[in-house]
Specification:
Number of helices: 4
Distance between the termini: 33 Å
Helix content: over 70%
Keywords: Membrane, Transmembrane, Transmembrane helix
Largest sheet: none
Order of helices and strands: HHHH
Number of strands: 0
Strand content: under 5%
C-alpha cells in the first residue's frame, strides 16, 4: 500500500516534469500533443535527462494503477483487512489514489502528454 502512495506521488512529479519541459521548449505553459507546432522542431529527448523515467512512468501508469487496484481489492477481500481500521483506511486511500491516476491517465490531457512523450 505504501508503494501505491509513493507511485501516485511519483506520477504527479513526472506529470509536472513533462509539462515543465514542454513549457521550457515552447516558452509558455500548455498541454503538449503529438506533432504540436511548439515542439515539432525541438528534439525533446536530446538534452533532457528525465526523458526515460518520466516517459516510462506516464505511459505505464494506467497498467500499474490497474494492477495495484486489483491487488488492493484482493488484499481487502482475502484478508478482510483483519479487522484493522488503519489497514482498511489505508486500502481505501491507496485505492482512491490509483483510481485518480487511472482517471487522469485516460483524460484527453493525460493521453496527449503520453503521446507527446512517445513521439
Amino acid at each position: 500500500m505504501a508503494a501505491q502512495y509513493v507511485f501516485a506521488a511519483w506520477y504527479a512529479v513526472c506529470g509536472y516534469l513533462a509539462l515543465a519541459y514542454a513549457a521550457q521548449l515552447a516558452g509558455h505553459w500548455y498541454i503538449p500533443s503529438f506533432h504540436d507546432p511548439y515542439t515539432t522542431d525541438a528534439d525533446a529527448s536530446a538534452d533532457w535527462a528525465w526523458k526515460g523515467p518520466v516517459t516510462i512512468t506516464i505511459v505505464m501508469a494506467p497498467l500499474i494503477a490497474w494492477v495495484s487496484l486489483f491487488v488492493s481489492l484482493a488484499v481487502f477481500l482475502i484478508r478482510g483487512a483483519s479487522g484493522s481500521r488503519k489497514l482498511t483506511f489505508a486500502l481505501i486511500g491507496s485505492s482512491a489514489l490509483m483510481v485518480l491516476v487511472i482517471v487522469v491517465s485516460y483524460t484527453p490531457a493525460g493521453l496527449s502528454v503520453s503521446d507527446w512523450l512517445n513521439d
